[in-house]
Amino acid sequence: MTRSALTKHAKIAPGVIHMLGLFVVASPCMAPQLNVSQKVGEMKCQFTGPEQLTVADLEVLLGLIALAGVQTDSFKSHRQLTGSNPDIRLRQMLTMQLVVRTTYSELARELGRSTGGATWPLLKQSIARLSAVRVIIKPIYGTAYDESPLFAPLRTDGSKDSIALNLSPVLAAAVLGGPGEFVQVSMEVFRSLKDKSGVACALYFRLHSLHAGQDHTITVDRLVKLVYGDDVPQASLRKSRSRVKAAMLKIAVRTGWSVEVENGVCRFHRPGKAAVKDTESS
């Protein structure tokens, strides 16, 4: 499967971006298991897995979702969830089904990596970690309502290069949904921010949880937690702060966001596009 151009954006469920601790920069003190959750109306959304997910896994997730969007032509055919009740909307979301079919070569190209076979094991490892994650939706008080893998591998055409994955309804609803069901993340910017540390990519993704078109003030230590999680060793805190500050300035250059970092505080403005402003403020 070969395309002439790389994808421009990925449509992500707001709950995935808001889920702190879901994707973090790798560190020696990372939790061995993944178990993060958040409340959505009267329901709780929980992600569990045998391993903590890293920014490298986030990169693969975004690449697969972006490719799924291209394959479904999702920006021309919206299926908008209805109803103001978040629990009803959540139940509607859980009916969504979507399969992404691609190849390791195409995914590697999408992520700006070598398309040769040497890259495939790294992609396979990330897909295996993502597929091991369970997404659990249940009432705040009561038994489990729905459970599904984040990605469910399907039978392929037999080629060693082929990939076929069924997306969790949480991911599928964002790709298939209309305004209000997704946040748009620029893949062009994400690719341009890539470096060995992963800090800039992690911050860029996570800051989409804040409203577009507004001024924001956030402490540098809070940004450190967004990137590294809650368990940042005191001995490495100074280095982590320095990396976060540099990453914010790098993001400003790549995106046009206005960013000021001074006295342990970061002030920034993230402009919003008309197509996604309502989505992110809803």
In short, what is this structure?
By secondary structure, this protein is an alpha+beta fold.
SSE topology sketch:
Layout: E1 9-12, H1 14-18, E2 23-24, E3 34-40, E4 43-49, E5 53-54, H2 55-72, H3 86-93, E6 99-103, H4 104-110, H5 120-131, E7 134-139, E8 146-149, E9 151-153, E10 162-167, H6 169-176, E11 183-186, H7 187-192, H8 199-206, E12 214-219, H9 220-228, H10 237-255, E13 258-262, E14 265-270, H11 274-281
Parallel strand pairs: 2-5
Antiparallel strand pairs: 1-11, 3-4, 4-7, 6-10, 7-8, 9-10, 12-14, 13-14
Explain this structure.
- The structure is a single chain.
- By secondary structure, the chain is α+β, with helices and mostly antiparallel strands.
- The protein has a single domain, classed as Winged helix-like DNA-binding domain superfamily/Winged helix DNA-binding domain (Arc Repressor Mutant, subunit A, Orthogonal Bundle), CATH 1.10.10.10.
- It contains 11 helices and 14 strands.
- A hairpin with an 8-residue loop joins strand 9 and strand 10 (162-167).
- The chain is globular, with a radius of gyration of 18 Å.
- Residues 274-282 have low confidence and may be disordered.
